[in-house]
Amino acid sequence: MGVFQGGHQRALYAAGLSVLCVLVVVLGFQFAADRGDVTSTRAAVSSWEASGTNPPSAAVRAPASEPVFAPQPPAGLELARAEEQDLAAEQALVPSARLPEGEQFPRTGEGTWRVVAGTSPRIGSGPEHTYTVEVEDGVRLTGGDASFADVVQHALSDRRGWTARGDLAVRRVDSGEPDLRVRLTSSGTARALCGFEIPVDVNCRIAQSVYLSAARWARGATAFGADLTGYRQYAINHEVGHFFSYLHEACQEDGQPAPVMMQQTFSTANDDLVDVTADNPQQVTVSRDGKRCTANPWPFP
């Protein structure tokens, strides 16, 4: 989702974001997220960006360094006013992009993450990519950390997942330095990291980490209706797709399953994506062609 974001949220998290900005300059982060652009810092994939096609492999990676900070939202009246502004901005978007109604979710965390214990066998063939499953400190899940880890492991191990490509393998680890970290993140931290210029809660991938917003984890997206598990699988596979260097896609054939790299958090209709992303380019030019796909969480359904 969105990467270089502004507005009043930046003021809310000024201290944390200033640290993040310094790290971006020094370490040359690549922000490739569910509503963000692949930047010129990764010259090795610029030719793929220009052609609008996806690279055949995940050989090129962003630097492994990443920020660790604890964004501090304001309290009291200032927070109430900020939330009112958020709601007003969100209501101006097409309905499909808005966060659905539902259960409460963690809004703040500590900006650090704990690894969930557990490993998996190697899944797939080809070069192996290890990953950890992590939960932000300060975030507590009703079903415990394992309930999050189980969904992540299933999504990345499923025969319809990225390993179906035939030239890569994944394996979950809980120690050492993984290739990828999949992190459940409070909505406040997710906004600080992923941005909020398109004023809805989103997930994103930054360098070697995927950040899944607790807001979307709890409530999903309109395109998926009541299928919360399907949305969670989509969010994981979409952001991990960015890790494998895939870019955003549009609905290709009306009435058919959406590409997993379509921004289904916003909509499965191209016309809606045009409206949502008009002021925030999203790696791909989407045409107002009336095409509407069906929700799909899998790279190879």
Please specify the SSE layout and strand pairing.
Blueprint: H1 8-12, H2 14-27, H3 46-51, H4 76-91, E1 113-115, E2 123-124, E3 128-136, H5 145-157, E4 169-172, E5 180-185, H6 187-194, E6 204-206, E7 209-213, H7 214-219, H8 228-243, H9 270-277
Q: Into which percentage range does the β-strand content fall?
A: 5-15%
The count of DSSP E runs of length 2 or more, i.e. the number of strands, is: 7
Radius of gyration: 18 Å
End-to-end span in angstroms?
22 Å
Q: Main β-sheet: number of strands, strand sense, barrel status?
A: 7 strands, mixed
Continuous helix count: 9
**What structural class do the secondary elements suggest?**
alpha/beta
Number of domains: 1
Rounded mean pLDDT score: 79
**Helical amount:** 25-40%
pLDDT under 50 segments (min length 5)? 2-75
Order of helices and strands: HHHHEEEHEEHEEHHH
Shape type: globular
Describe the structure.
This protein has 301 residues and is an alpha/beta fold. It has one domain (8-277). The protein is 31% helix and 11% strand. The chain contains nine helices and seven strands, in the order ααααβββαββαββααα. It has helices at 8-12, 14-27, 46-51, 76-91, 145-157, 187-194, 214-219, 228-243, 270-277; strands at residues 113-115, 123-124, 128-136, 169-172, 180-185, 204-206, 209-213. Strands 1, 2, 3, 4, 5, 6 and 7 form a seven-stranded mixed sheet that branches. A hairpin with a 2-residue loop joins strand 6 and strand 7 (209-213). Helix 5 packs across helix 8 (228-243). The longest helix has 16 residues, at 76-91. It is globular and about 45 Å long. The two termini are 22 Å apart. The model is unreliable at 2-75 (pLDDT under 50).
